[in-house]
Backbone:
């Protein structure tokens, strides 16, 4: 559902709203990306932190940061975007820390997912929900 | 008046007369017609540190009427908890006698009748008297302002907040944080902070949007009562979403819980024995933050305009709610020893304008600030036979009147008025002056737009606003109360997820369901988009009220609320 230009004028920020869960094709794309990254290995939890705003101030440029001490690579996915792949950060053996920050575009309210590959070949995952809203009506 | 399907019939049983809080006492005294300034200010000074909290004054220099909400629904973990308890249930909870001054100050029932007995509330000259009296007990008391101070009246609009800056400087505020302040535009805010303000402007959660660096001081350290007190400022977290981001384009906000934890630790590391957060988060956000961030002794809450006669304790953190519009002043006495808070005593002091004498110095300042605008302010536009109020989750009578004005003056099928929490009330029989209209509308993006929107789009908008109010996680509650509607009826199921709450949207003019594909002519105001065109809303309302002469607002039955 796209906001019409005139509609967006009424209340807000003109961010496109996607109020539905990822479609089947999008879920498949996410699963493919994860499988390519992990090689089908089990994914655990813990040891990875993902920092995102609760509500995006601007869905076109949402600041995120991710950290996983001891990781060799961290993949970031935007589960509700037409193309969920955001990118993979790789850390060499001389990296002082295993953390990265960037800004991503979000098509609507959705989960942002980060998966870290640890030095021992194991994987851990974290997901945060980020809300994209029309806004306005501010108290 | 909104229909509540499973409405609870509340008994008028006499409330308990023997409450344990100091608050119950002035309720009883009031019932005995013994309300005096001395009794309102009575406080057994305790400990070694006093905090004074005012917040959300919304530029109200003069006394006003202010009706507390009937509808204040709590969702998720806040369901059934204060401040989401109203009316008779609220009075029973705190042992407040029906018909007492406390009833009038803190609940909505019989508002017009009690307003006749107890009069107006607030007025910054009365607030000054309360603060001076506390300082007479405790000369080094810390006076903290939670923000929403520079916006909400004709004079604040005309002077770009200068009248309020002058008044708060005279009041001797020690620190403030902000929300609507930024709607004056970043240049004006910077000018005030650099050249006008006599005290720190704090915002731990305000960052440069490009470089992600703090822009304002996160906290100030005060040595008071022989102890080190850190006051951390937390500005309204959803500033660029709920209000026009283009007015302060370089700034990023957010709750930033981890940042708060860092600043608390930094303040403790710098020697703070007491950590106070001066917050504009809103009560439910503060309740969650208090649970997640250790080491905060007191959160002075704001934004949601709640007034609570006792602190709410979350772990070791005391949450204080001090109302709005100058109606209350909170006094908090702390006993601090050996690096820890040992005792907290608190009183929510209601500022009854007819009981508390105005402070002459502040009264003179207010008179001088208003003098250039006096004729404009006092011009009578019409009268009202109904109570006009805004506060509440859904349509109030002020916004019903504003929506009627939009429908009629802008020739629209549907009107939208934002769910602001600010705006004073009027009682039946009162004149409607130009000042009264501005008290419900004065802000810096007032253009009354007129657009076309499909039924589907309007549904998306209502769902979006509803989720920003009723999302079960308070960190995802972005803004004000529900957008108010004219010419449109709907049913809302609070407990449903976004996209499923709003049904039965009906065009009231025809009684027909809204057609998702058809375009409707919509009028509204307070768009956050730059370049919005249309006359300012106060002119639209003034023209409408002039034509009506006498305003009567019929009970609004167009919103059906279920799932409460």
Residues:
């Amino acid at each position: 559902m796209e906001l019409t230009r005139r509609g967006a004028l009424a209340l807000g920020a003109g961010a496109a709203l996607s109020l539905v869960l990822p479609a089947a094709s999008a879920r498949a794309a996410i699963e493919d990306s994860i499988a390519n990254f992990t090689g089908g290995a089990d994914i655990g939890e813990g040891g990875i932190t993902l920092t995102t705003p609760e509500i995006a101030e601007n869905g076109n440029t949402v600041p995120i940061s991710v950290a996983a001490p001891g990781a060799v690579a961290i993949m970031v996915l935007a589960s509700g975007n037409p193309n969920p792949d955001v990118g993979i950060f790789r850390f060499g053996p001389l990296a002082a820390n295993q953390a990265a920050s960037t800004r991503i575009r979000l098509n609507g309210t959705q989960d942002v997912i980060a998966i870290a590959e640890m030095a021992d070949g194991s994987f851990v995952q974290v997901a945060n929900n980020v809300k994209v809203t029309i806004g306005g009506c501010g108290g | 008046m909104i229909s509540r399907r499973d409405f609870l019939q509340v008994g008028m049983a006499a409330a308990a007369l023997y409450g344990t809080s100091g608050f119950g006492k002035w309720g009883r005294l009031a019932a005995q017609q013994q309300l005096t300034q001395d009794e309102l200010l009575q406080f057994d000074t305790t400990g070694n540190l006093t905090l004074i909290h005012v917040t959300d004054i919304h530029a109200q220099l003069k006394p006003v009427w202010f009706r507390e909400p009937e509808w204040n629904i709590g969702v998720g973990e806040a369901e059934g908890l204060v401040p989401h308890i109203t009316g008779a249930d609220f009075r029973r909870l705190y042992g407040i006698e029906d018909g007492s001054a406390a009833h009038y100050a803190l609940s909505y029932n019989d508002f017009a009748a009690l307003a006749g007995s107890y009069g107006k509330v607030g007025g910054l000259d009365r607030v000054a008297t309360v603060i001076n009296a506390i300082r007479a007990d405790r000369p080094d008391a810390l006076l903290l302002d939670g923000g929403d101070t520079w916006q909400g009246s004709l004079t604040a609009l005309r002077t770009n907040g200068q009248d309020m800056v002058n008044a708060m400087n005279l009041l001797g505020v020690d620190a403030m944080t902000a929300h609507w302040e930024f709607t004056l535009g970043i240049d004006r805010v910077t000018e005030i902070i650099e050249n006008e303000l006599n005290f720190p402007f704090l915002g731990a959660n305000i960052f440069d949007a490009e470089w992600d660096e703090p822009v304002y001081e996160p906290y100030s350290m005060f040595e008071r009562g022989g102890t080190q007190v850190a006051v951390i400022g937390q500005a309204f977290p959803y500033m660029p979403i709920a209000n026009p981001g283009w007015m302060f384009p370089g700034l990023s906000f957010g709750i930033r819980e981890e940042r708060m934890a860092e600043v608390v630790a930094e303040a403790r590391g710098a020697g703070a024995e007491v950590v106070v957060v001066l917050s504009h988060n809103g009560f439910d956000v503060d309740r969650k933050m208090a649970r997640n961030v250790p080491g905060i002794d007191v959160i002075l809450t704001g934004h949601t305009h709640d007034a609570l006669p006792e602190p709410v304790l979350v772990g070791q953190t005391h949450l204080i709610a001090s109302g709005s519009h100058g109606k209350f002043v909170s006094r908090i006495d702390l006993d601090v020893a050996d690096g820890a808070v040992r005792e907290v005593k608190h009183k929510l002091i209601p500022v009854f304008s007819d009981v508390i004498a105005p402070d002459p110095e502040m009264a003179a300042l207010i008179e001088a600030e208003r003098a250039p605008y006096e004729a404009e302010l006092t011009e009578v536009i019409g009268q009202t036979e109904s109570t006009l109020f805004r506060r509440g989750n859904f349509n109030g009578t002020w916004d019903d009147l504003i929506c009627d004005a939009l429908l009629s003056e802008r020739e629209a099928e549907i009107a939208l008025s934002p769910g602001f929490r600010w705006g004073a009330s009027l009682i039946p029989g009162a004149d409607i002056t130009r000042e009264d209209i501005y008290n419900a509308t004065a802000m810096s993006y007032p253009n009354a737009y007129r657009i076309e929107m499909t039924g589907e789009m309007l549904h998306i908008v209502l769902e979006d606003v509803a989720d920003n109010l009723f999302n079960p996680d308070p960190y995802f509650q972005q803004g004000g109360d529900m957008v108010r509607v004219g010419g449109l009826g709907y049913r809302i199921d609070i407990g449903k997820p976004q996209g499923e709450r709003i049904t039965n949207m009906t065009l009231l003019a025809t009684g027909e369901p809204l057609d998702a594909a058809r375009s409707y002519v919509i009028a509204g105001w307070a768009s956050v988009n730059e370049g919005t065109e249309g006359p300012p809303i106060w002119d639209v309302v003034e023209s409408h009220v002039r034509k009506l002469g006498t305003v009567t607002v019929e009970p609004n039955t167009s919103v059906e609320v279920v799932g409460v």
Summary: The beta strands of chain A are 43-44, 49-51, 62-67, 71-78, 85-90, 99-104, 110-118, 123-130. Chain A has one domain: 5-130. The two ends of chain A are 27 Å apart (CA to CA).
